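lol forgot to send this yesterday, sorry. struct tokens for the thing we talked abt
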């Protein structure tokens, strides 16, 4: 599953875009200095996200939309179209 696919699945499950999760996290007082475990547990408890999906959201919340280019442009299950994740909803993603 690509990184973007994890985010899209979270949106399908919760009805919230990654950008909305970032705003909700800010309302909780989370920022780049927050320990990832704190955010991870919040996502699991409040939104019933599984570990992998929560981890993807933690990255976006704490580090932003940039990802490693290791799988960018590569085919297969882990390939992403861009090194910048789309945060504004899967239905409006120009790379989909």
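and heres what i got for the seq, position by position
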């Amino acid at each position: 599953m690509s990184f973007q696919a994890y985010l899209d699945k979270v949106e399908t499950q919760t009805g919230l875009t990654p950008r909305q999760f970032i705003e909700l996290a800010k309302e909780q007082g989370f920022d780049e200095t927050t320990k990832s475990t704190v955010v991870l547990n919040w996502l699991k408890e409040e939104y019933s996200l599984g570990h992998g999906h929560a981890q993807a959201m933690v990255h976006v919340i704490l580090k932003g939309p940039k990802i490693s280019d290791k799988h960018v442009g590569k085919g297969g299950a882990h390939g992403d179209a861009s090194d910048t994740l789309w945060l504004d909803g899967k239905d409006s993603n120009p790379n989909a």
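The first helix runs from residue 3 to 14. anyway ping me if u want another try
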